[in-house]
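Appendix B. Chain record.
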Amino acid sequence: MSHATETRRLASVPDLEARLVTWLARHSIDALRISLGLVFLGFGVLKFVPGLSPAESLAEDTLRVMTLGILPAQIGLVGVAALETTIGILLLTGRGMRLALVLLALELVGILSPLVLLPGQMFRGPLAPTLAGQYVLKDVIVAAAGMVVAAKTLGARLVVDRDPRQPNEGARS
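Structure tokens predicted for this chain:
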């Protein structure tokens, strides 16, 4: 390969990176919002069908503790299903985003509450989560994703703050 060809090939890598960074800044948060919407819609719809959701018993146990046993399990489960489905639809459409964020915040309290309300079901030991515990702990990522979507909804922007073709002095390889 000639020196000129090698130079052109190397010069195109930073240009591709610059285009990628710009594309990611423009589309990644919407992709995150849509993926959250799909997850909530899918899990919400499952809860409408008795016995179909693998989280059904965990949701029922959590609701029983949260409502002091006053709310019948099936009514509570339909309520959770409706809430999750609504959140999913709002996130997918991008409409009613402020309402979606309020509902998401309420849902996250319920989703993460088994860590406090049902520790015996969540952990076998101090650092040994059960399968149910792992299921709930992964929702910390859902909470963080919701925070990113909330930031954009409330006016924050993901922008490219430097020319990606220039070396990043603080970056680690």
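Further analysis of this model is presented in Appendix C.
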